[in-house]
């Protein structure tokens, strides 16, 4: 209610507020981590810091009312739009916070998505190996995924195996592990798998098209982004053309990992709030926003330098403050129609 | 060492590291560039690169090392990165027979996208000797075969190295070899647009290792 900042009294702990190990300065230490396992108290101390009861009540009521209309079969398109707008406003107004977020992602990803029974067959050995290789290379600095056979890695492995089993055509693609691991930070394994499946097949997200061979959705996203840059960032657009720069060199990793590889956790959670509610639009907005923010620098760089510049963590960490960031992102003018064009039919 | 106000013109060399997922491309790059090994690298999505300045012979070069995603379907995204490469590093894992079997197709893909270039083949993870599946001799013979088969007019060379990125053995040698190969190629090629030459008489000009065709006609269109 009062909107005061929660105190992050984690400075003495080995992990950050989000469970990432605090690394010694770059270049020091090799097998760091193992000795730094966080205590149970450190986690518990971070729970329930926010007074979110009223926020919770609002969401639960809203979902309950909508659900009743929907089940009674009287939720018209207009009504649905009304609710979705409400949810968007509410999400824009404030960070729902950790525990409520789990509920929101679970419910919002169900909207207008029908996912059939998963046909889970055998996973071919090659796919199994590919998954196994990436298990230890996904958020390795997070305490959940640091231990060689810790519960985090076990969950990650099981969810990835099930995901590739339910869609053998796509199987496993590098990049997939990052959104799964990110979801596992917010919810337990079964929910994570459920949300992933809906993002996989649901027409708002179509992750399967993102990861399937030849990356059809990525190609479509890149061409939309090209158009948007031409309109919104003409200087950068000219520079890209003059230098024969391949935009994909910079932005492909953004989309292929849904920004989980780049954005700091708090920011990412906020971006995903909107990704789950609305689909790809917000990720395109983030892309345009980041490019716009870095435009003055980018137009002086070669492609190699630009990749290096946009890869460095500081580019993302320099972001002012989460709420200022997300509001600025949501103001990036990208037409809904453009995004709907991603998925004809 | 970097406060020199008028640094001599550095040669920029671009090399690409290719190979199956998980063979240790990122680790090799980091070991060479920053002399450290971390068993916790994130999987490479898309591509990534680091640069390192080094001296090859008497030439200061800036080596730009591109690290790529190893999964096969990422090859279709790779072409943008291969462009303008001066040499390539092919990596396999000595404990995974399959990764060695794929080296040929990685090389082919690279040749299609960037043209034929000198390369080094690296068998990585020699610290896991007890799990080795690919004998040194097999890899060396494969290399020799590539060298013998090459086009007479467009001869390229492949050297073989074995490394352990974890224990930092052989890494320096392999990268120095590929840097030398890349530099030799650069030097033998006429620069497309000769940079306006400002001859600094106080310094030994390191440029143009070949020396013979150092005409510098001053055409700075």
Q: What is the general shape of chain A? A: globular
Q: How much of the polypeptide of chain B forms β-strand, as a percent range? A: 15-25%
What structural category characterises the helix and strand content of chain A? mainly alpha
CATH topology of the largest domain in chain A: Cyclin A, domain 1
The helical percent of chain B reads 25-40%
What is the CATH architecture annotation of chain B? 3-Layer(aba) Sandwich
Organism (chain A): Angomonas deanei
Protein name (chain A): Rab-GTPase-TBC domain containing protein, putative
GO molecular function, one term (chain A): GTPase activator activity
Pfam family, one (chain A): RabGAP-TBC
Give the helices and strands, then pairings:
The complex is a heterodimer of chains A (345) and B (221).
Chain A: H1 40-44, H2 53-71, H3 77-93, H4 98-108, H5 125-135, H6 143-146, H7 151-166, H8 177-186, H9 189-201, H10 207-211, H11 216-232, H12 234-242, H13 247-256, H14 265-278, H15 281-298, H16 303-311, H17 313-317, H18 322-331, H19 336-340
Helix pairs in contact in A: 5-7, 7-8, 7-9, 8-9, 11-12, 11-13, 14-15, 14-18, 15-18
Chain B: E1 11-19, H1 25-34, E2 47-56, E3 59-68, H2 75-82, E4 87-93, H3 97-101, H4 103-114, E5 119-124, H5 136-149, E6 158-162, H6 171-188
Pfam families (chain A): RabGAP-TBC
Domain Rab-GAP TBC (chain A): 95-279
Organism (chain A): Angomonas deanei
Can you give a write-up of this model?
The complex is a heterodimer of chains A (about 350) and B (about 220). With about 350 residues, chain A is mostly helical. Chain A folds into 3 domains: about 15-40 and about 55-95, no CATH class; about 125-200, putative rabgap domain of human tbc1 domain family member 14 like domains (Helicase, Ruva Protein, domain 3, Orthogonal Bundle), CATH 1.10.8; about 215-340, Orthogonal Bundle (Cyclin A, domain 1), CATH 1.10.472.80. Chain A contains 19 helices and no strands. Chain A has helices spanning about 40-45, 55-70, 75-95, 100-110, 125-135, 145, 150-165, 175-185, 190-200, 205-210, 215-230, 235-240, 245-255, 265-280, 280-300, 305-310, 315, 320-330, 335-340. The longest helix of chain A has 19 residues, at about 55-70. Chain A is globular, with a radius of gyration of 21 Å. In chain B, helix 5 links the parallel strand 5 (about 120-125) and strand 6. Helices cover about 30% and strands about 20% of the residues of chain B. Chain B is built from 6 helices and 6 strands. Chain B has helices at about 25-35, 75-80, 95-100, 105-115, 135-150, 170-190, and strands at about 10-20, 45-55, 60-70, 85-95, 120-125, 160. Chains A and B meet through helix 5, helix 13 and helix 16 of A and strand 2 and helix 2 of B.
């Amino acid at each position: 209610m009062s909107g005061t900042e929660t105190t992050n009294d984690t400075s003495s702990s080995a992990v950050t507020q989000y469970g990432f190990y605090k690394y010694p300065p770059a270049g020091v230490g090799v097998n760091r981590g193992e000795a730094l396992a966080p205590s149970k108290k450190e986690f518990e101390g971070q729970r329930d810091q926010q007074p979110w009861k009223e926020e919770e009540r609002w969401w639960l009521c809203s979902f309950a009312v909508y659900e009743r209309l929907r089940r009674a079969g009287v939720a018209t398109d207009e009504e649905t739009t009304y609710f979705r707008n409400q949810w968007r406003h509410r999400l824009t107004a404030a960070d729902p916070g950790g525990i409520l977020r789990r509920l929101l992602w679970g419910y919002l990803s169900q909207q207008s998505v029908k996912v059939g029974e998963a046909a889970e067959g055998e996973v071919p050995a090659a796919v199994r190996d590919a998954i196994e290789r990436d298990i230890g290379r996904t958020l390795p600095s997070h305490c959940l995924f640091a231990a060689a056979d810790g519960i985090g890695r076990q969950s990650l492995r099981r969810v990835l195996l099930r995901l590739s089993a339910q869609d053998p055509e796509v199987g496993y693609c590098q990049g997939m592990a990052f959104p799964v691991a990110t979801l596992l930070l917010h919810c337990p394994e079964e929910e994570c798998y459920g949300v992933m499946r809906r993002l996989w097949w649901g027409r708002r997200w179509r992750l399967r098209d993102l990861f399937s061979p030849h990356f059809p959705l990525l190609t479509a996203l890149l061409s939309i982004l090209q158009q948007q840059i031409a309109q919104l960032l003409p200087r950068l657009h000219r520079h890209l053309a003059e230098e024969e720069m391949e935009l994909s060199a910079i932005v492909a990793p953004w989309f292929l990992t849904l920004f989980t590889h780049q954005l700091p956790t708090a920011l990412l959670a906020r971006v995903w709030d909107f990704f789950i509610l609305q689909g790809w639009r917000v990720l395109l907005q983030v892309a345009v926003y980041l490019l716009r923010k870095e435009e003055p620098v980018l137009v002086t760089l070669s492609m190699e330098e630009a990749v290096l510049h946009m890869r460095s963590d500081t580019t993302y960490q320099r972001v002012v403050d989460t709420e200022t960031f997300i509001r600025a992102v949501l103001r990036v003018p990208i037409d809904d129609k453009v995004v709907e064009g991603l998925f004809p039919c | 060492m970097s406060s020199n106000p008028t640094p001599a013109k550095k040669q920029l060399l671009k090399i690409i590291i290719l190979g199956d997922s998980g063979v240790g491309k990122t680790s090799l790059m980091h070991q060479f560039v920053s002399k450290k090994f971390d068993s916790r690298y994130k999987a490479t999505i898309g591509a990534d690169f680091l640069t390192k300045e080094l001296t090859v012979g008497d030439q200061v070069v800036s080596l730009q090392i591109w690290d790529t995603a190893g999964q096969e379907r990422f090859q279709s995204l790779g072409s943008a990165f291969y462009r303008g490469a001066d040499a390539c590093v092919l990596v396999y894992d000595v404990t995974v027979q399959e990764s060695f079997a794929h080296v040929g197709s990685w090389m082919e893909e690279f040749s299609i996208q960037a043209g034929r270039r000198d390369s080094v083949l690296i068998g990585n993870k020699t610290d896991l000797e007890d799990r080795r599946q690919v004998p040194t001799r097999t890899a060396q013979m494969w290399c020799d075969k590539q060298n013998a088969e090459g086009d007479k007019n467009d001869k390229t060379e492949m050297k073989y190295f074995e490394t352990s990125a974890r224990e930092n053995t052989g890494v320096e040698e392999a990268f120095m070899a590929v840097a030398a190969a890349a530099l030799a190629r650069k030097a033998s090629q006429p620069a497309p647009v000769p940079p306006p030459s400002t001859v600094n008489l106080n310094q030994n000009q390191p440029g143009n290792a070949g020396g013979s065709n150092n005409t510098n006609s001053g055409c700075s269109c």
